[in-house]
Amino acid sequence: MRTLNFDPRGILYVSLPFIGLLTFIVFWELIVLIFSPPDYLLPSFFAVAERIFTDRHALAAAAGVTGYEIVISFLAAGAAGVFGAASLHFWPRSGKILLPLLLFVQITPQIAIAPILLLWFGLGLLPKVVIAVMISFLPMLINSYIGFRSLDADVLELARSMHVGRWQLFTHFEFPAALPHMFTGAKIAMTYAVVGTVVAEFMSSNAGLGYVIMTANGLLDGALGLASLIVLSIEGLLLYILLSICERLLTPWQAAQRRGVMMNPG
Q: pLDDT per residue over 171-185, tens digit each?
């Protein structure tokens, strides 16, 4: 007969996020109780939670718009990052062309570019995707390039001894070896895509959670603004979790290595 073994450390590890969330809510309520700020500055957590429930349909529709824009921007940034990294890997001299352009894009404030894109493309999807991609693609490019260059020397020598072609070397050896690095860059790019999408909605949008936040601020509706912000955070967290699940499915050896390190920290 099998006995169930409860690991207190495992229970504590799972409980920590909920403890942190509960602490944050209590701290929030204490600030409201002690300082009594006006509702347009800081409403109580329960007022915001009630607003999420009462406006759930409108917030869900806005979250759908923002989520679609985030996913499109993330996929475009991922494709641009992997393609750019592969170009740098296959043709190192292309860095002399790409790197100055990348540096120019990154040091240029995207908020300053938004009005120009608005004049060029209007209020549609394209300017928001362009802004979000400009903010989020660089981590994907850097981590993908590091991953392509991370193939073990012994594996590289084995592939060469087998007379593997350049394209086969990339698809069968270098690309799989780069996947953990690519997912690291993808996680960073996902968070940047959320930020970039909301910034774009602030500047040039008539829909989405960013637009709702701006509208709520204009109406001094603090509960709606914070409700939209909480929904946006939940949406970003769910997308990040989905990306982590994809990482576990596509790089199972990486998850096994992490478990081994956690079980044997010494």
A: 777 888 888 888 999
With a CB cutoff of 8 Å and minimum separation 6, the contacts of 194 are: 70, 232, 235, 236, 239
C-alpha span between 104 and 220 (Å, rounded): 38
Encode pLDDT of 46-83 as tens digits: 989 999 999 999 999 999 999 999 999 999 999 988 99
Residue 20 belongs to some domain of the structure? no
Q: What is the pTM of this model?
A: 0.81
Q: How far is CA 33 from CA 26, 43, 158, 257, in A?
A: 10, 10, 68, 48
Most confident of 32-41, 45-54, 130-139, 152-161: 45-54
> Looking at the domain assignment, is residue 43 inside a domain?
no
Q: What residue has token string 């989905």? A: 242
In the numeric block, which tokens belong to residue 177? 């070896």
User: Does 14 map to a domain?
Assistant: no
Domain region containing 238 = 54-263
Domain presence at residue 5: no
- Phi and psi at residue 91, in whole multiples of 5°? -125, 85
- From residue 181, alpha-carbon distances to 54, 150, 256 in Å are 42, 9, 16
